[in-house]
Amino acid sequence: MMRPARSKSSVRNPGSTPPQAAFSLIEIVLAIGVFVFAIVAILALMSIGSNSNLAAATDTSLAEMTQYVDSYVRHQGFTSLSGSNPAIPGSPTLTSAYFNNATPNFFFDGSGNVIVSSATGLPDTTGTYSNALYSCTVSASPAPNVPAVAAATGVALSATSSNLLYLRYDFRWPCIAHKAPKYPPDRTVYSSVANYE
Description:
The protein is of the alpha+beta class. It has one domain. Helices cover 28% and strands 21% of the residues. It has 2 helices and 7 strands.
């Protein structure tokens, strides 16, 4: 005996709502996974960007500090730099052809501005100011095979003196007052000064 096929009624209950499309649990989990992956990638890029920004700011400050130190050293004149008592703040008396200071000659704040002693008006060499962040140690050595020549006569003055000095600026940070500088320095800049007198 065969039963007659039932037809679906198109009549709905008046209180019921029509079925609505919805996300399945799997779709929700996949969407959360994609969102978390994107957030982690963005946070990683923000960290790289922040580090790059800090490095660029440090490089800018170092360029300004190098310009200040180099200008200050060159302003002293060649004879005052190559003599027995160089006119660089905090430099020891020269007793040999090469001097390498163990203590910093210049201190700078976080913006790269030189710290000036309130007592002397010259660059501070003590590092006692609380806002000192960078320090710079100046070293010099005479260039070999560039003998000093008297400008008026053209005669060599001395076999041990030179018309050219190699300069080395060692920058370190963060600097802590009254502590030995760390080695190797964070950045080293090389320069030279010639005798045109």
